[in-house]
């Protein structure tokens, strides 16, 4: 019998997160105040986040202890398995050895609970009673609903209206885990009421939903805001993925030549890759590939600038690769990758030449995802299909060159709550959005006036 | 850190299934021919099933080797974890130690692939190219779609029309795994066309769908039929659940006092319990509880008789507890438990006083399932909620009596593709179907004319 899967014992779970800021040659640049454009410090963030998370956000300490209370909850589904994709290798006829870290085994079906649980815990410890957040397709909102429920916190989720209506199951899932979920724009905030008065039929947007959640946070008692990606502390919490994978490869007596993750805001990519990037910084020969949609090509076509996190331009300015906060991506299925910016840490790693970006168009990603589902059983999330498209590319290159590289990718989530893209693909009706050169040029032109970080 | 979860290494996976027929004091009675009422042998089943599965169906060999090809596929998600429900224990304030075997981690989200993979393999080895089956809510159809795809077989699924229309995601899931799925009754069989002509607006039924799948099987080339529960070989394939659990308890140095599973056709219950029933037969003190809906009380209110497996009365007659093949259960959410009969093996074990049946009504099961989701994170399937209702009952008895019993239950599947019941429960709109005494009396009266097995 082949070794298909490596589990770790719970006793082998990592006890510390890895903070890559400690190993970066270029120090991270501070966020800027949205009004004054001046660098902001921890105190400026205090109305939005609890101070213990702000401390993690600005920390340069290499290893940060994972509290037992967090480990006890993560142990519901962690350590997650590392699985060898033998059948996919056969299907591709490649000499490459393909492994995936399976984050689809969490109760909400993705990597999102890794940080949701940590954030709920730190809010609880800090005395916060209630969290407000936004969600697009619903992955983040449902993961945080589970986490806040397990720690006895209240949660209010502002869900982009079009998803709220199209994805009733995500909404019920949040409700099952005890969260209140409303369509955004809602009647519950000033900003929401203003938007509804002006655009009664608006489908909503992530930008509007973020603005509502932040307004809710600063106007409600004992409430803080939580974000599912982009920020440093979110990347930190996700590193448990790569740290586990390293132990699993150690058990196998091997090490990956290539590590691949899809990138939207950057968190699952950071989770699987940062521990390997650390090895690379210290001399290991490993390629790290971040994969984005060619219809939202932040890393491959965007510019490194200070930009807002939200469309309404209310968040602090972050130094990141961006297509501009006014950029509205086309409605491709991978909702988790429809973000105009990129995590500052991931952006800096690109500048430091530690990661390679690749971009694939939608049809190519579903082609890869379907082949994966039909050879390895698990139906991947639309976002994950981007990572798999890059795996195909690299594994077929191995075939051409006759080299047996070891490839690791992060299976960031399953797709069984997001199946309509597969249906369209099988009907040959899937639209292949590409961002035209003139649109990219226009976006970049608008960006010329944005504040420039020191490079 | 608490030990939350016990994994097994892949090398510790059971290499043999356990066949309880070898240890039963009462030999199993043969199925009868639907036309003649005479006992039938292996050859009579040959047009429906491949001979290697028929051999398993009638085998009394205690241990049956699991082929490597089957183990390699099961290893996509197996061994499944055994998890301690600490938070649920706290919620209930019980001294009981509650463990669950987590079958929700399979790619289709339930225990069904354990037998789907085995059945696809044996059909493949026997030279079969194509399988026909029926599905109600879609769990079985999608699990078999995955399995047939992985072994390169074609699959046609006749899905009960009302589910086909209400559960489009299950249909897309089957399609993603390469199966053809049609609403039943369909235009593709004589029986289907006849039904449509007579009742153009019929919602369909499992009985009609079985009849269509069997007609398809016997009229198509290189095609066989597959069933997801009830039959002996299905129970056999599921015993990997309990065999793994035994190894996991051995690792913990403990043993359950009570083993609990929900029962519809009987397969997940058989899977978790048969290896423990073996220990009980050989003197171990362990209670085994099968939990059914009080709206379909086959074990608690039905009679042990020869009955048909389908509504159309075309299958062989099986000796089992039944409410009569004309019994149409009320539309409660746990679709997998809406079956008039019971696996012959499970029925015989009840006659032999080796298992205890319990019945719970729908609201009680959702109350338990919701509390589980909110304390342990995983949202259980509506079927699984029945097992959890019994766990509550037993754990609260432990609290009353001040005894710290060890309880194992089978988390047969997750509910994230079947969430509407939770929504209704939270809206206080969930209907509590009970089978009225006069209806039970009526059903039992009709059963008086059925052939009686020797007891």
Give an overview of the whole structure.
The structure is a homodimer of 455-residue chains. Chain A is an alpha/beta fold. Chain A has a domain of 263 residues: 3-Layer(aba) Sandwich (Rossmann fold). The first copy, chain A, contains 19 helices and 15 strands. A seven-stranded mixed β-sheet of chain A has the order 1-4-5-15-10-11-14, with helices on both faces. In chain A, helix 6 packs parallel to helix 8. Chain A is globular, with a radius of gyration of 21 Å. The N and C termini of chain A lie far apart (52 Å). Chains A and B meet through strand 1, helix 3, helix 6, helix 8 and helix 16 of A and strand 1, helix 3, helix 6, helix 8 and helix 16 of B.
Keywords:
homodimer, alpha/beta, Rossmann fold, seven-stranded mixed sheet, four-stranded parallel sheet, 19 helices, 15 strands
Using CB atoms under 8 Å apart, which protein chain pair has the greatest interface?
A: A-B, 54 and 54 residues
Question: In DSSP terms, counting alpha (H) and pi (I) runs of 4 or more, how many helices of chain A?
Answer: 19
Helical residue percent of chain A? 40-55%
Largest pleated sheet of chain A: 7 strands, mixed
Strand-residue proportion of chain A: 15-25%
- The largest sheet of chain A has its strands arranged as 1-4-5-15-10-11-14
C-alpha-based Rg of chain A, rounded:
21 Å
CATH fold call of the domain at 5-10 and 67-109 and 233-446 in chain A:
Rossmann fold
Q: Which CATH top level class of the domain at 5-10 and 67-109 and 233-446 in chain A fits?
A: Alpha Beta
Structural class of chain A: alpha/beta
> Can you tell me the residue ranges of chain A where pLDDT is under 50 for at least 5 consecutive residues?
none
Query: Could you tell me how far the N terminus lies from the C terminus of chain A, measured between alpha carbons in angstroms?
Result: 52 Å
- Write down how many β-strands of chain A occur, each being a DSSP E stretch of 2 or more residues: 15
* CATH hierarchy: architecture of the domain at 5-10 and 67-109 and 233-446 in chain A: 3-Layer(aba) Sandwich
Gross geometry of chain A: globular
| Oligomeric state of this protein | homodimer
Give the mean pLDDT of chain A: 95
């Amino acid at each position: 019998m082949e070794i298909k899967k490596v589990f770790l014992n719970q006793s082998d779970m990592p006890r510390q997160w890895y903070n890559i800021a400690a190993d970066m040659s270029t120090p991270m640049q501070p966020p800027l105040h949205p009004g004054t454009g001046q660098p902001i410090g921890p105190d400026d963030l205090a109305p939005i986040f609890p101070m213990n998370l702000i401390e993690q956000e600005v920390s340069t300490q290499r290893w940060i202890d994972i509290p037992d209370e967090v480990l006890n909850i993560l142990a519901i589904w962690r350590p997650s398995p590392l699985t060898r994709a033998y059948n996919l290798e056969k299907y591709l006829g490649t000499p490459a050895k393909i492994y995936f870290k399976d984050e689809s085994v969490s109760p909400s079906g993705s990597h999102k609970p890794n940080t949701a649980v940590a954030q709920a815990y730190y809010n609880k410890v800090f005395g916060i009673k209630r969290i407000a957040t936004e969600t697009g397709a619903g992955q983040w909102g449902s993961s945080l609903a589970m986490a806040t429920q397990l720690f006895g916190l209240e949660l209010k989720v502002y869900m982009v209206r079009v998803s709220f209506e199209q994805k009733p199951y995500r909404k019920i899932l949040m409700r099952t885990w005890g969260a209140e979920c409303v369509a955004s724009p809602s009647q519950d905030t000033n900003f929401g009421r203003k938007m509804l008065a002006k655009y009664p039929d608006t489908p909503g947007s992530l930008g509007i939903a973020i603005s509502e959640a932040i307004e809710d946070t600063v106007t409600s008692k004992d409430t803080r805001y939580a974000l599912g990606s982009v920020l440093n502390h979110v990347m930190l919490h996700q590193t448990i993925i790569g740290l586990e994978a390293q132990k699993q490869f150690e058990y196998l007596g091997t090490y990956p030549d290539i590590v691949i993750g899809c990138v939207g805001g950057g968190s699952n990519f950071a989770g699987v890759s940062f521990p390997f990037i650390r090895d690379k910084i210290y001399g290991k020969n490993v390629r790290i590939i971040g994969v984005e949609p060619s219809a939202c090509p932040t890393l491959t076509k965007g510019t490194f600038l200070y930009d807002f996190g939200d469309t309404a331009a209310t968040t602090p300015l972050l130094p990141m690769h961006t297509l501009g906060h006014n950029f509205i991506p086309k409605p491709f299925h991978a909702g988790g990758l429809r973000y105009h910016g990129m995590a500052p840490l991931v952006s800096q790693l690109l500048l430091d030449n530690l990661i390679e970006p690749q971009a694939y168009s939608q049809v190519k990603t579903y082609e890869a995802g379907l082949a994966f589902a039909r050879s390895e059983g698990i139906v991947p999330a639309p976002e994950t299909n981007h990572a798999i498209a890059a795996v195909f590319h690299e594994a077929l290159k191995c075939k051409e060159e006759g080299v047996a590289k070891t490839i690791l990718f992060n299976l960031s989530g399953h797709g069984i709550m997001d199946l309509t893209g597969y249906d369209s693909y099988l009907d040959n009706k899937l639209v292949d959005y590409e961002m035209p050169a003139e649109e990219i040029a226009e976006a970049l032109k608008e960006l010329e006036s944005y504040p420039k970080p020191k490079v």
